[in-house]
Structure formats: C-alpha cells, structure tokens
Amino acid sequence: MLAGEPFLYWFGHKPRICIFDYELARQVLSSKSGHFVKNDAHPTLLALIGKGLAMVDGIDWVRHRRVINPAFNMDKLKMMTKIMMDCAQSMAKELGDLASKSKNRETEVEFGKKFRELTADIISHTAFGSSYQLGKEAFQAQHALLEITMETFLHVQLPGLNHLPTERNRRKWMLEKNLRRSLMHIIQLQLASEGSENRNNLLGLMLDACTSNEEGGKQGELSLSMDEIIDECKMFFFAGHETTSLHLTWTVFLLSIYPEWQERLRQEVLRECGRDQYPNANSLAKLKEMTMVLLETLRLYNPALFIQRKPIADITLGALKIPKGCAIVIPVPIMHRDKKVWGEDADEFNPLRFQNGVTRAAKVPHALLSFAIGPRACIGQNFAMLEAKSVMAVILQKFSFTISPNYVHAPVDLFSLKPKFGVPVILRLLDE
Ligand code: HEM
After folding, report:
1. Which ranges form a coiled coil (predicted)?
2. For ligand 1, is residue 236 a contact (CB within 6 Å)?
3. Between 3.30.70.1450, 1.10.630.10, 3.30.160.270, 1.10.150.120, what CATH number should domain 65-240 receive?
4. pLDDT given for residue 1 in this prediction
5. CB 322 within 8 A of CB 315
C-alpha cells in the first residue's frame, strides 16, 4: 500500500478512517485539548493488560503519567544502563562460548528468539530490581496469556463465551490469578524494602512517586490504587518488551545485509567505548552513527503498525468531517516510506538522512512517528534507545555477522511488525 488519499473502512460494525497526511496526523496526535482519545482496545486485550498508562485518558492519564514520569528520567535511566549491559554481556558470553567450540569460531543464531529472551531479562531486572526472578515468572505468565489472547483475537466475540469453563478459559483464569498474585507479592516486597538502593528500578521509582504526596493525598496513601499499580507493571512488559526486541532484531537484520554500516558502527564503538571496556551511559551517548542506524531501522521496520485515536465529538480535520467515535488510523510504516516527505530514496536504507538529527531527516520535522508525537508520545523512548545501544555495542565489540542462507524475508503484521521466520544470522567471534 502507498501513502495516498484517506479512506473509510469498517472494522466489524465500527467505521475507521485511515489518513496518510503528516499535517493531519500532527493535529490529531499533538492536540492538547482532549478532543482525541485512545481508540477502544479489543476487550480480550484490555482484560490482559488492564488500564495502564497507555490505555487511560483524561485526568486519569494525567495522574498516571505524573507518577510514572520520574522512573523514566534520564538520570535514573543512566543508572539502569549497567543492568542492560550485564544482561547483554551474559548473552554475548553464551554466544561466544558456542562460537568458540566450532573450528571457524562461528555459530548460527536466530536473533528474533535471542532478543525476545534478552529483552525479557532486561525488563525484568530494570522493572523489579532484586525481585527480577519473581518478575520474570510474572512476565512469563503474561506472555502465556498473550498467546492465548492471540489465538482468539480474530474470533467472533459471542456474548458469555469468556465465562464458560472451557479448557482455554480455565487456563486463562489460572494464569491471570497467578500473575496478579506474583505482581502483588513483588509490590509488597518493594514497599517493605528500606533504602533507595533497593528502589532504583521502574517499580520502586514509581512507588516512590506514588507515596511522595505531591498529589496532596493523606500521609501513607498511594496516589495510584494497588490495582492501578499492578496494571502499570503489566504495561512495562507489554509496552516495553516486544517493541525493543523487534527493534534489535531488525537492526541486526539490516546490519547483516549492509556490512559497510556494520563495520562503521564497530569502528565507532571501538573508538568511543574501547574493545574490552564495559560501555557506560557516557560512552554510549557518543555513538552518533549508532543512533542514526537505530532511527533508520525504526523508520523502515517500525514495530508498531498503527497509531489510533477517536474524536469525542464531531470534528473537521482538514477537508474531512469525522463523526464522534469514528476511529482515526495513522499507518506509520506506510507514512515512513512516503517519497514526498522522505525523498526519492525513502525505500532505501540510508542512515545518513539522520545525520543532522531526527527533526531534519525529512521535509517535515515530525516525520518519524515510531514513538508517536505529542502528549501521548512513548514514555519509554529513551529507555528503548539506551537498551538498543547497549546491546548493539556489546555485540559489535565481540562479533561480526552475516545473514544466514536460511533467512527468508517475510515481515508480517502480527500485532506488530515481525519477521515471520525469524532472523537467522551467522555470528563470528572477532579475533582478540
Ligand atoms: C522501540 C521501542 C518502542 C517503540 C517503537 C514504542 C512505541 C510507542 C508508541 C508508538 C507509543 C504511542 C502509542 C499511541 O499513541 O497510541 C508508545 C507509548 C507508550 N510506550 Fe512505548 N515504545 C517502545 C518502547 C517502550 C518501552 C521500553 C516502554 C517502557 C518500559 C514503553 C512504554 C510505553 C508507554 C507506557 C506508553 C504510553 C504512554 C502514554 O500514553 O502516555 N515503550 N510507545
């Protein structure tokens, strides 16, 4: 599909309008008037992820965002870089051990799976600190629930079906109960823990902001309820796991087929972070070409396929009259390849377009919509970029890689943009 005229289509009995125009998208996403709210989530999805930050609107959203913001401030994220590095180093060691066993010091790795494991590890550690093992179990239950949800996502929703004690429903109820119990246990452990050291994780920082009483609540009262905190924990995993894993997977894919860029980035990493040293937040901040490649990967292989909003009253948007409640769909990957905005080479991999920064990469300053724009833009974008840089720096320090002959190029829309058959890569240990 190419960027073009807006069109209307039906999603079940609900109308949706798809727009491709950057100016209209900016008006919808940057509006601070409260005219546009999130589109209704599928009920099974809502049951799974609850009403975390990404799902709430209005004053509830303001309250949630105020509590969660401090956890994503750059100083706190810099402290989390060490954890990201530790997890990446441990994956690299495992892969290095495998490669060193073979005569030519190489091994085939399916990076889609590897990065799903790694990013689950990173989000468990950064979200829950010392309770990461419990957190990992909670996330495993959440992942199993997501798989059940995916199986039934496109089924017709017959009323009452979700309440029948079928085998699938009973498994779902059991997983939901375990997930809630584990998250509640972790929250109570954190609330009981003394000292800021133990609270330098996303949950701990969120709890600190919750109890700081800036909201004018009573002493000892949380500004989010226990259920809301549980939903935010689910949100960390739901919003921050798959997206980052896919971003890394597509980056490895692109660097495998553009060896000149792979070598450029390796030289930059060796120059700024050294060969054996542990990269840290300061050295990662100097990786300009790495940032360009990561942004170009997001442009070409954006994990999120659509951003959606709906107006709360009838509204005129450019020449369009949109009735209250009609969903507006912004198809990000298609807009990211619009030649009128990105130039004739929009379909090509050209990280240099980002050399003067994100806002100067295309003909409009807000052309990159990967993390959305406006008040509801991704709260985790700095986290995601730091994580991607940490992992790629460690990989480039130790290995070179090429795409495996078994690779089949088949990006598919499965909630997000996934490589259908994974990304198998031949990974080779660099000489010491
Ligand atoms: C490459 C990685 C990521 C991508 C491409 C991405 C993309 C997005 C996008 C497009 C939105 C806006 C959705 C909308 O407006 O409907 C969003 C919102 C959000 N993201 Fe991310 N995200 C990434 C990583 C993360 C991480 C690591 C976290 C947390 C650990 C996170 C947490 C959130 C949350 C909580 C929101 C809702 C913000 C709000 O509504 O105020 N994301 N993300």
Report:
1. none
2. yes
3. 1.10.630.10
4. 59
5. yes
Rounded distance from Cα 245 to ligand 1 centre (Å): 13
Is 235's C-beta closer than 6 angstroms to any atom of ligand 1?
yes
* Ligand 1 pocket test, candidate residues 29, 123, 378, most atoms within 8 A of CB: 378
Answer whether residue 41 shows pLDDT above 90. no
One DSSP character per residue, 220-258 reads: T--SS-HHHHHHHHHHHHHHHTHHHHHHHHHHHHHHHH-
* Per-residue buried b or exposed e for 149-169, using 16+ beta carbons within 10 Å of the residue's own CB: beeeeeeeeeeeebeeeeeee
Q: Do 235 and 98 touch, CB atoms closer than 8 A?
A: no
**Do 46 and 235 meet the contact criterion of CB atoms below 8 Å apart?**
no
Q: Are 95 and 110 in contact (CB under 8 A)?
A: no
CA separation for the pair 167, 90 (Å, rounded): 38
Residue with tokens 């040293």: 277
**Which pLDDT value is given to residue 399?**
97
CA-proximal residue: ligand 1, atom 27 (nearest): 240
Domain residue ranges of the chain, discontinuous segments joined by +: 65-240
The encoded tokens of residue 318 equal 């450019």
pLDDT digits 0-9 by tens, 111-162: 999 999 999 999 999 998 878 888 888 888 888 888 887 777 666 666 677 7
Q: Sorting pLDDT into bands at 50, 70 and 90, what band is 211?
A: confident
Do 106 and 429 contact (CB within 8 A), yes or no? yes
The amino acid that residue 153 corresponds to is F
Positive or negative, the Cα torsion across 142, 378, 258, 1?
positive
pLDDT at 277: 83
Among 224, 203, 343, 249, which residue's Cα sits nearest to residue 352? Answer: 343
d(CA 423, CA 301): 13
Distance CA 122, CA 326 (A): 38
The structure tokens listed for 3 are: 């960027």
- Ligand 1 atom nearest to 385, measured from its CA: 1
Q: Which structure tokens are listed for 389?
A: 């840089």
Q: 380 CB less than 6 Å from ligand 1?
A: yes
